[in-house]
Amino acid sequence: MTHPFYVFGSYCFAAVMILAIIAWTWIDGRLRRRELAALEASGIRRRSQRASESETK
Questions:
Q1: Predicted confidence (pLDDT) per residue in 25-45, tens digit
Q2: CA angle (12, 14, 17) in 5-degree steps
């Protein structure tokens, strides 16, 4: 195994891993947004969301 082959292979492996993590994070974020939208559509609200005046009375 030559030195340039090892260096090139290492950089390629690192680049593929970084791209995989970016893709995984992006896909997971889209799935979480869909889940939140489905929960909010069913009437479940976030605790951090302030209730309107009509809901508190």
A1: 999 999 999 999 998 889 887
A2: 110
